[in-house]
């Protein structure tokens, strides 16, 4: 048990260093530069070196002040990293949030009026982002094919997946999480850009990279989840004791499984 706890602590420490502390220290350094330089002398390296030299002179020979400065820097970096984690969670929630139906219809009608096109209704996305809509379509496709609720079935199916499959899905989801963290750092850099304009192009670049990576990694996660359901749905039925007369889950068995997993609520 001690070995397991030590290994777990090491992994958590490595993740804290890589995902929170190091990016936080970089942001704190950029924030210090922004506060010292401002918009007027945003790229004045001479002025920045002079200011840092004066700060170093004030700290020279004062161990207590140096310790407080280091502690404050580490604390600020940690707070920045934790703030990004919270922002990243908000970004992921926003990606899958519902699109206001009235706004979506207004945009569609405006596009049709501008092009003068008539005919069949275009597909109306139900989520704000393409990533969220891709996740929603997984649930609808699984329901249409098997009558299963992906939200109910996935936690149980995850426990049945072989050890060779889980790391692939976990790695894809880690990339998806990382993309939201990139977007969150872009938002934080945008706030810094209000006081120091060089942070603005960095914020735009981070936002574009996070958006691109989010699309690709989100699509990969959705495809892998759907593929796992396609390949392993019979294992789920067998584990729950549901007979499959057709050799696979049909909407009739899917409805039965949904009732079992939902505790017939």
Largest beta-sheet characterization: none
Q: How many beta-strand runs?
A: 0
Intertermini distance: 39 Å
The assigned structural class equals mainly alpha
Helix content: over 70%
Count of helices? 9
SSE run:
HHHHHHHHH
* Mean of all residue-level pLDDT scores: 81
Name the poorly predicted regions: 1-9
Assembly type of the chains comes to: single chain
Q: How much strand content do the residues show?
A: under 5%
Q: Write down the Rg.
A: 25 Å
What general outline do the C-alpha atoms trace?
elongated
Characteristic key phrases:
about 260 residues; mainly alpha; 9 helices; about 80% helix; elongated; disordered N terminus
Brief characterization of the structure:
78% of the residues lie in helices and 0% in strands. The chain is mainly α and 265 residues long. It is elongated.
Structure description:
Mean pLDDT is 81; it is low at 1-9. The protein has helices at 2-37, 45-59, 63-95, 101-115, 130-146, 150-160, 166-193, 199-240, 251-261. Helix 5 (130-146) packs parallel to helix 8 (199-240). It is an all-alpha fold. The longest helix has 42 residues, at 199-240.
